[in-house]
Amino acid sequence: MKVGIVGAGMVGSAAAYALALQGGASEIILVDRNTDLAVAQAEDVGHAVPFARPCKLGAGDHDALAGSGVVILAAGVPQKPGESRLSLLSRNAEVIADTVGRVRAAAPDAILLVASNPVDIMTQVALRASGLAPERVIGSGTILDTARFRALLAGHLGLAAESVHAFVVGEHGDSEVLVWSSAQAGGEPVERCAAQLGVPLTSSARAHIDEGVRRAAYRIIAGKGATWYGIGAGVARIVQAIRDDQRAVLTVSTHMAEVAGVSDVALSLPRVVGAAGLVTTLYPDLADDETAALQRSAEILKESAAGLWR
Q: Is 156 a catalytic residue?
């Protein structure tokens, strides 16, 4: 499958690199306002291909996206140190709306995969600008937050991350909700597994994991200016689920008519992802405090996006 990437900065190039190494695409086209950057990134990633799997790398303008099955939107300005994702809103909304129009003209049948922050609201912007059905406009959402949650839980338990199943839902940002109530390890509720392993999940252990997930981006941005490897790999994972019609359950974002009593909002829940895009949404059985937190997360997102639709 041909994959287009608009935005050849660190996130876009990391996604291209992950896709190339994993064999997630037969062809990758990078597009950027800085043509030299797009060409250089395509050439650099292309030099990794002989060590991995066959994949054609190229760069061009938006017309070069023709025939893409998925187009990743990674354009926009980066998050500054200390800046919340939501504060990026006004700076990136116009960029995404303009980009979507150009992408749709070149690749009208492509699924749009939004990776620009604040990703939940940018997913809504992309949906409105595209005229596509919601299942064909996917935000990367909390796929990375979920990976962080599983990795930190696994580290506490002394297990492989693949043996831990847990979700982060809601906003990809400060109000995200770690779903402890349904977390499992080795097929057991995570608290029972932790007790058997002799590493109980005390309140302090939970708080440490929560902080590790919720503040990860801020720590990384403070240290090196931006995050890109984790989200690049997450975006590549979503593309593979689409390409192979895997029907994988991933915590990605899309527009919802209503969730937790809040209407017209985009956020992340566990969703089945396949060749058509989003197949269905799975609603986790949340504890009362988690339900309240999800509602608040939805309210924050709706309040933040309200000014865009006036």
A: no
